[in-house]
Amino acid sequence: MNETAKKPRGRPRAYEPQVALRQATGAFWKSGYAATSLDDITAATGMNRPSLRAAFGDKRAIYLQALAGYWELQLVATRKALDGDHALETALMRVYDAALAIYFSGDGPARGCFVVGTAITEAVDDPEVRRSVMDGFRTLDTRFEARLRRARDSGELGSDTDPTALALLATATLHTLALRARAGTSRKDLRTLASKAVGVICG
């Protein structure tokens, strides 16, 4: 067998798709969808345009994958925080602590929530982005409501408690933390805010 026959066909990938997508997400997270160019994404990922297109599609396709990946991260963190036999107050603070860990996960100033920081603007004109945002919000509402309903049924909350209304308040607290993180409020102060919101929710 000659040397040519021994060589494997094709070139090995010079990138890891999940790593590249995470780097692209960081670029969108920093500047938003409209202000992030393909040149910004190539710089963040180290991939050229043809490689990006072959791996992920165009800029919008890359963004939609980044948005889906962020929702998975956020919703998994929320589910894990609410699961188990923790007291309601503890469970809610676990959610907010997990969210703050995400909002302050980048280098430099807090990035806040990827959805709130990048998708809300795009949702006005892009039905697919709008659907992603609404589906994610509904999932958060549903998970909070299920935990609050369990707390009411077990006696942690009063029998006249409205789990649906409190779930909306719990989700709204996430949005508030995200906005204030992006605006520069410290993590310590945001945790204090979250604790006060939990006190209101738990009565």
Mass-distribution shape: elongated
Q: Estimate the helix proportion, in percent.
A: over 70%
CATH architecture of the domain at 67-201: Orthogonal Bundle
The total beta strand count reads: 0
Instruction: Note the gap between the termini.
Output: 78 Å
Main β-sheet description: none
Descriptive report:
The protein has helices at residues 3-6, 17-31, 38-45, 49-56, 59-82, 88-103, 114-123, 127-153, 163-183, 187-202. The protein has 203 residues and is an all-alpha fold. It has a domain at 67-201: Tetracycline Repressor, domain 2. Helix 2 (17-31) packs across helix 3 (38-45), helix 2 (17-31) crosses helix 5 (59-82) and helix 9 packs antiparallel against helix 10 (187-202).
Annotate the secondary structure layout.
Layout: H1 3-6, H2 17-31, H3 38-45, H4 49-56, H5 59-82, H6 88-103, H7 114-123, H8 127-153, H9 163-183, H10 187-202
